[in-house]
Design goal:
The structure is a single chain. The protein is mainly α and 349 residues long. Among the domains are: 12-113, Serine Threonine Protein Phosphatase 5, Tetratricopeptide repeat, CATH 1.25.40.10; 210-295, Serine Threonine Protein Phosphatase 5, Tetratricopeptide repeat (Alpha Horseshoe); 296-349, Serine Threonine Protein Phosphatase 5, Tetratricopeptide repeat (Alpha Horseshoe), CATH 1.25.40. The chain is 80% helix and 0% strand. It has 18 helices and no strands. Helix 1 (13-27) runs antiparallel to helix 2, helix 3 runs antiparallel to helix 4 (65-78) and helix 16 runs antiparallel to helix 17. It is elongated, with a radius of gyration of 29 Å. It starts with 12 loop residues before the first helix and ends with a helix.
Length: 349
Amino acid sequence: MAVQLLFAEPQSPNTASLMKRARELRARQDLPGALAELRLAAKTDPMLAAVHREIGLILIEQRDFKSASSELRRAVQLDPKDFDSRYNLALSLANAGAMGEALGEAHRLVRLHPRWSWAFYGLGHIKAMAGDKEGAIQAFRIATNLDPRAYRPWLELGKLLEESGDRTGAIQAFESAVRAQPDSASVRYHLAVLLKKDGKSESAAAEFAAARELQDQRARGEQAARAYRNGIELLDKGDYASAASELHHALDLRPDFPETRAALAEAQEQWGAKLEQAGQPASALEHYQQAVELEPSAETQNHLGVLLAKTGQIDAAIQCFRAALALDPHFQNAEKNLKQALAISDGRE
C-alpha cells in the first residue's frame, strides 16, 4: 500500500526531468524503461530519498523483493520520516524470506506511527505470513479500530477468523468490508458463502446476486474500455463512422462512463464538420444534433443554428441560438445570431 507523501524534496533540474520521464514510462507499464531513468537519477543525485523509493516500488512490481528492500532501506536512511518506504520495506523483506527483519521493521513502524491503520495492517500481513494467526488477528483488529473504512484489514481479518472457525466474527468482518467497499464482488461472494453455511439463505442469496451483478458490470466495463480505445484510435485516423460505432457500443455497455459520451460527441461533431466541408450541410446537421444531445455545447448549438438558418429552418435555428445562450449567457455571436433570426422570423409574419 503506497501513500502520497505530503512534502517535496529538492531536485536538480536533470533529476526532476529523469523522474518525470520515469513516471510517464511507469504509467505506460514500461517498468524496465522507468527503472533505467530512475537509476540515472540515482547516479545524478544519490542522496535523494524519492529516487530510491521509486526504484524500490518498481522492483516490488517486478517481484524482485530482495533488491527492492535494499533500495527502500536506503530511502529510509535518507528520510527517516518516510513511512511509506518503511511500510514497503517491511513487506519486501517478508516476501524476500527475511521474516525476522520484516517483523522488526513492522514493529518499528507501528511504534513510530501508532495511529496509522496501514502500519498495523502491514504488521498483521507479515505476522500472517509468518504463521502467527493470533498476532495477525490482533494487528488487523487494531487497524480496523483506527480506520473502520479501510477495506483490506477487514477482508484479511475475515479470512483469518474464518480459518480459525469463528464464523460469526468472520461474517461481521466481511460485512464491514462490504460497507467499506460495496463494489467488491469477491468479498460479497465470500460473505454469501458464509451466510449460506450459517443458515441465512435469504441474506446469502442477496449477496450472491450482488456479486454476480458486480462481476457482470466489471466484464461490461472491460469490454467498454476496449471499445472506447478502438473508437479513439479510429477517430484519430479520421474514420468517423467506425469510431462512432465503437463509441456507441462502449456507451451501451457502460452508459455511466462520461469520457465515452464526450468522445462520441467529439466524433459526431468532427463527422458533421467533414460533411459540411464536403458541401453536405443537411447531412452534417444530423451529426451536430447528435453531438449536442450527447454533450451540450454553446459553440456547437450556435453552429447548428447557423446551419439550420442557412437551410431555411429559422424556427429551429432560433431554438438553437436560445439553447446556446442558456449554456453561455455572454456568448455574443449566439446573441447576434438570435437577433438576426428573430428579425427574419418577424419579417415572414
